[in-house]
Structure prediction request, 263 residues.
Amino acid sequence: MARDYVEQLVWRLPWFRDRVAAAWGTPADGTVESLDALAAFVAARVHDPSPVTADPFWFEPPGHRPDWTEAGAEWVEGLAAAVAEVITAATGARWVFDTDPRFVTGHQPVLQGIVNTPHRLASLAVADVLSGRTSRPLSALVPKMIDQYDPTLRLARAPALDENDAVRADAPTAVATHVTVEVTPLTGGPWDVQVSLPEEVEDLLGADAYASLEERFAAVPGVRRVVFEDRDLLVLSTDGLEPEELRRALDGVLAGLGRPDVA
Prediction:
């Protein structure tokens, strides 16, 4: 289904451009500046009762709004194709499949190195227009996605969806020696230290190394117990280790994970 979605973009974008030009007279010209007006144009058509040209793939409006028709979802999907065009033209990002169900983009086609999907960006923008909010205009969100583009982080080796691409993207992952922790003292409970990791820690270390962190941190002299509270947050019970001393020790563990001679 994800591969079919990417393949249908070949005709969905010109389909959208032709429909916009016929109904509005203003073209979808592939610029960031045109996206907000296109979002407003599409928002006025999310209740379109017309038959669909082809069933929309990602009919999931924010809040699961039941009043968005399938024809309306097709309009939103056309807007997503326009958003994808702007992003790929600026970054060269390739379509891959997000196999990780823990993320909002899990089991969806995504642009590698982009932190949100074009179809979600389009849906959020249309929902904002309908609600009267302007907090997430595409003219602000899309440049942010482009500025944050980094193909070496999460999904660097995700399965490619373009048949002309290799089965897996070949971008290298960032080296683990760049991973450092922040240590914050805690009081009034069994845990005396909170340790914060970079949000993208699993991508930087790799899944196996990330899964071993509790055990590896617990093996540090003076550490009694380690528990993950979130993907990038742990609490530790120690024998009164100084925060700076503990930080150096944990950073040493992370640096060791970047060396192939460390099991």
Remarks:
- The CA atoms of residues 220 and 249 lie 7 Å apart.
- The chain is about 40% helix and 10% strand.
